[in-house]
Amino acid sequence: MLRLTGMDPDRLAEEKRRGLTIDLGFAWCALPSGREVGFVDVPGHERFIRNMLAGVGPVRLVLFVVAADEGWKPQSEEHLEIVDVLGVSGAVVAMTKRDMVDEATLEKRVREVRSKLAGTRLERAPIVPCSSVTGHGLDELRSALETMLAEAPPPETSGRPRQFIDRVFTIKGAGTVVTGTLTGGPLAVGEEAEVLPTGHRARIRGLQTHKRSLESAHPISRVAVNLAGTARAELARGDVLTLPGQWRPTSLFEARIRTVRGLAHPLTQKGDYKLYAGSAERDARLRIYGATEMTPGMEAYVRITLARPVVLDFKESFVLREAGRQETVAGGEVLDVDPPHVHGSDPVPRLRARAESGRGSLAWRLVEDRGAVRAVDVFALTGARASDAVAGGAIRIESWLLSPSVAQEVARRIADLLASYHAEHPLRLGLEVAEARVALSEHKSGLSDVALADALLSNLVQLGQVVREGTTIRLPSHVLTTIGRADADRLVALVAAAEPTPPTVKELRIMGFAADLMKATCAEGRLIQISPDILFTPGFVARAELLIRELAEPPGVTVSAFREAIGTSRKYALPILEYFDAKGLTRREGDMRLLGR
Predict the structure, then answer these.
(1) H or E segment at 326?
(2) Cα separation of 231 and 420, whole Å?
(3) What DSSP designation does 219 have?
(4) Are residues 141 and 9 both part of a single domain?
(5) Rounded CA gap, 161 and 243, in Å?
(6) Is the N end or the C end of the chain the one with fewer CB atoms within 10 Å?
(7) Does a structural domain hold residue 470?
(8) 202: Cβ–Cβ under 8 A, 6 or more apart, which residues?
(9) CA 94 to chain CA centroid, nearest Å
(10) Does 571 lie in the same domain as 439?
């Protein structure tokens, strides 16, 4: 690396003393075309594999090093398994120490390496013999790097910025600095940044790439970010630096994994695993869909539970290692960072559809999988826009996105519910909205959010499929009427005949008049309920109103005087006056009632 870049990435005293890379190192150089390329130098020794994984996690282009004098080593195989399952998009193999072997040995080593690469993502990678002592092959190595960069797929540069933090340190006079590989989108000086999963926020005071100060940093590049007002202890390797609200940490996700070819023991759900994604390391538990164990080279869909949240992206690559044996066992790609409850159904078709999807259709896939999603959640969960989901077929209802199948099912469910309710309770105006919410919460899509239930009901009202009156809903075809019902006519006649001292509601129920019937006659205006226990006819209430308008002129009227004037008892007179108070016709001042103002 020193001969290629002019920089020694080993920064620790122990590394220089032992001549061994222990932690991540960083270097860069300009290629003959003028294009600048940065390197994350990772440890090769098996004791420091965790540090190696923290360095290669965000990187998709690899310079794989094999020494010509030593040849393929056990750690070479594990490193190959790791970069293979991480899904690298380009690689160059540097066979170093060319000056230490003769031609025959070199040819043997090249054949050996080529055979090891067979069947992996690196099988077509050029193998370039070179020597840092003599300089032999360095020009060819630079040329191979140029070709790899030119053929690499273009990175996403205008999406959500995300920088996995791999190093945190303090500079005197500047404060806390974090470094990592920036992907997804740009960061700019002065912006408020968010560190996940902690949620800590801080202003970006400064940015540097390859020791050059920048006003904005763009993917893909190594970036040092100076954060204002942030203590070093608040940050750790594996955290993610991004912009507020653009990502959501997860402790549960679904993925497709493939076991490594050198797997020595079957991978099962009972093992203790470590997950490595970006620069993060997390304890993980595994649930394998459709199998109890996995053998070498086998693929399966899985559900992974983490001990601590991490920030993951759709189709992001990760590595699984068995904690006890400290062996790399599998790698995979993330398919769903916020999976729904399985509910006993087979999740494989859903995950297979996601695996075959691209970012453009992911927003729609999210809505289709869940049935209903808040529009504001789409970007944080997918990196796509709510408008992409609508373009895919989602229906927008207020602040929610629904799949057409769920919207249709909700309409059918409410229609059936109301039809049954009207048949059972013909004298009720309609079903209480609260009861409709409960019915929606029992839907297979889990539509339990009150705001969602109200939005769905409001949509049905707007479409004319449901009528809402106060706190109740009904079908448009349901018309409440007591006219022509003999029991209703008897009720009204009985109350009218007994005024000004009609039977109470309790007494009427004893006489056999149902509560629904009384409510229905009041809803139609044939009776007026002036208190929970007293009903009058509209004609009587009108006469009482004319009387109180005469009596309540200053200095006002007492309950006793009103009782005598209307010819009833205090039991009825007081509720009538309280009814007029509630309407604003009268107001109480001490023992007197006066006309309201």
Answers:
(1) none
(2) 63
(3) S
(4) yes
(5) 7
(6) C
(7) yes
(8) 192, 193, 195, 227, 228, 229, 230
(9) 42
(10) no
As a whole number, the mean pLDDT across the chain is 89
**Angle at 254 (CA atoms; ends 249, 256), nearest 5 degrees:** 130
> Cβ of 400: how many Cβ atoms within 10 Å?
24
Tell me if residue 529 falls in helix, strand or coil: strand
Helix extents (H) in 371-514: 375-382, 386-392, 404-424, 433-441, 450-462, 486-498, 505-510
| Separation between Cα atoms, residue 332 and residue 301, nearest integer Å | 9
pLDDT in tens, 251-299: 999 999 999 988 989 999 988 999 999 889 999 999 999 999 999 999 9
Contact yes or no for 416/377 (Cβ under 8 A): no
Q: Which segments of 76-161 are extended strands (E)?
A: 90-96, 127-129
Say if residue 9 is in the same domain as residue 143.
yes
Q: Which two tokens stand for residue 156?
A: 């996403």
Are residues 506 and 418 part of one domain? no
Query: Where in the sequence is the domain holding 134, given as residue range(s)?
Result: 2-151
Residues 132 and 24 in one domain: yes
Tokens standing for residue 579? 């009814």
Please state, in angstroms and rounded to a whole number, the distance separating the CA atoms of residues 398 and 402: 10
Are residues 453 and 560 both part of a single domain?
no
Q: DSSP 3-state assignment of 185?
A: coil
Per residue in 121-155, pLDDT (tens digit) is 899 999 999 999 999 999 999 999 999 988 888 87
User: Could you tell me which of 392, 338, 397, 333 has the C-alpha nearest to residue 362?
Assistant: 392
- Residue (of 430, 403, 405, 427) closest to 415 by Cα position: 430
Indicate the Cα dihedral angle 381, 382, 386, 389, nearest 10°.
-120
Same structural domain for residues 143 and 183?
A: no
**In whole angstroms, what is the distance from residue 72 CA to residue 80 CA?**
11
CATH of the domain at 226: 2.40.30.10
Instruction: Say if residue 442 is in the same domain as residue 548.
Output: no
Please tell me the distance from the alpha carbon of residue 39 to that of residue 170, in angstroms, as a whole number: 22
CATH of the domain at 576: 1.10.10.10
The dihedrals phi and psi of 11, each to the nearest 5 degrees, come to -105, -15
Other residues' Cβ atoms within 10 Å of the Cβ of residue 482 = 22
Pick left, alpha or beta for residue 146 (phi over 0 → left; psi -120 to 50 → alpha; otherwise beta): alpha
Single out the residue in 223, 242, 261 at which a domain terminates: 242
- 506-541 tens-digit pLDDT: 999 999 999 989 988 998 899 999 999 999 999 999
Contact between 45 and 75 (Cβ < 8 Å): yes
Last residue of a domain, one of 454, 474, 494: 474
Is 371 within the bounds of a domain? Answer: no
